[in-house]
User: What shape does this take?
Amino acid sequence: MSVRGFTAGVAAAALLFGATTANAAVEIQWWHAMGGELGKKLEKIANDFNAGQSEYKVLPVYKGTYPETLTAAIAAFRAKQQPHIVQVFEVGTGTMMAAKGAVYPIYQLMKDANEPFDPKAYLPAVTGYYSDTQGNMLSFPFNSSTPILYYNKDAYKKAGLDPEAPPKTWEEVAAHAKKLRDSGMACGFTTTWPSWINIENFSALHNIPIGTKENGLGGMDARLTIANDLTTRHVANLAEWQKTKVYDYGGRGNAALPKFISGECGILMESSGGRANVLANAKFEPGFGMLPVYQDVKGAPQNSIIGGASLWVLRGKPDADYKGVAKFFAYLSKPEVQAWWHQNTGYLPITTAAYELSEKEGYYAKNPGADVSIKQMRLNPPTANSKGLRFGNFVQIRDVIDEGIEAAVSGRTPAKEALEAAQSRGNQLLDSFQKQNM
Amino acid sequence: MTGKRVHFRGVLLPLALVAPQLAITLVFFFWPASQAILQSLRQEDAFGLGGRFVGMANFAALWNDPYYVESFLVTAVFSFGVAALSLVVALVLAVAVDRVARSATAYVTLIVWPYAVAPALAGVLWWFMLNPTTGIVAFVLRGLGIQWNHLLDGRQALLLVMLAAAWKQVSYNFIFFLAGLQSIPGSLIEAAAIDGAGPAKRFFSIVLPLLSPTVFFLIVVNIVYAFFDTFGIIHATTEGGPGQATTTLVYKVFRDGFIGLDLGSSAAQSVVLIVIVVALTVLQFRYVERRVHY
Assistant: This one.
């Protein structure tokens, strides 16, 4: 074939290809941070949506960890190459909300596209996290979880504890953990996500704020109040327990999970999303319970708050594309889709209908402990202290709080001092965020 | 010297020959560097929707940031530790291999091997061996009565990343030391031996002074390595923690810029790093390069 003939062939092929794509579905880019098994489950949802209609085609793209996905989406937005939908973890909510010109709020998107959308169908503790002060939902809750308590029933038996009675208070946690230590275990209890569990959810469950302005939901001038008496008491206790390995610090993120699965620690506080992992890998019988509270604190337990991620829609795409995004979200809201996602991943059923459907299908009867998380979320109607939190630069602030806990637990700094340092450092970050977004 | 100089006729050919290199330098160095300088004078939100010129405010904020000062200290300890550790170990290994009569090639190959390991992998290898729960080295240390927990103990965490970084760099230093040792004339050492100098005396009076240009060169290279090429090791293992214990200057640029999305401060830190690199390069060319004999 001559060069000219070859070029002509390529051009013709390109034309043909272009023509077919123009007639075919509108592509909707969806950047997400779900690797491994969760990624496959997410892809199934997209594939099912694509198979159900031919107008739009949702293309999920795995972009790495949560921070990597957020950074990639922001860089892409600056280069005008942004995806339609991006999955952002809960601590990135403040950043996304401040970027008013970049995000297309969900309530507006659904209204513009005339798709049915009822925010009341979602659990209040979930919508609160992702709504503005007027109650308008800005992002689409996708995968939400809340921390719960896991314990090793076999170790409980060996230590002479009742394997059907998980600890309900911190006093009981300490007593059980001590017995576990006495029975020969290397560590009593540990927690993953130090700040999320020991400060953020701890405060919500005890109905105390971690910051002013309704934990930041009320405005960008909110400041942290994490160095209060109750958190100081708790972190000081952790430091005390660390000395005898009643508690053993296991690192940031979910790095402490193997300590429980390997049988080193008898009790673990971890995201409800870790349930599948524990069930698949633990060589003992695990039990589940709610997070503990301090006995003498009135009104506790209040309710826990969520973690996980939500889907944000980015602006700057053709109007027609957004109709497809709205259709996809309408599909995602269906009780059967939500229930399937909940039952197969361990994330919370984020609509009441999905919870009820799962119950009707007998899922909780067959899987004891699977509903602990949702019960804990729904213990009480959320208060200003337990609706959720929203602070700018919270990714860094969480690091700062983790550092504070590390400083106290390692015995380097007294708890009060460590928390005060974290608080003032965190407030500096809030201050600079406020300035950046003026 | 002039006798060696090659002359090209005209202007176009020489220009064409250096053009690719110039283009690469402009695109990959001057362009990003200028962007960093511009960004360092601005404060803007992550999405680049709004922003304003703030002059030197980002730099001023850095000097008032105790974490930034701390990361200077961490970087200093880290770089010095990595350079000292890898230089000493490499020198010992090179001297040993230099004395081996048989199968020296096998030793050389084995010692050079770690250089091919990616930094992140090197970090993870050490991370596994020293993992407080499952690591074999941590297990042995526990047997010796040493509680190893780099998740909580900042000094142990710093030691961990230093070990991983130094281990990788030993190979590189080793090659230079071995080449340096082999270029020392055997007659000098033999003469000293005949005069009655023992192995230690010969090493410190003859070998080390003759090796000093190599040592100087390697010190600069190792410090640059510890400063800039160890990001992967830290990112794959400690992520800068616990606390700020392993947050080096480069890691802080990444953390503030890509995790914290504070682009102004991150850019200002990059500019500070550019100044440090320039200073190190000047130091190398003015004082070290002159004394190295290739």
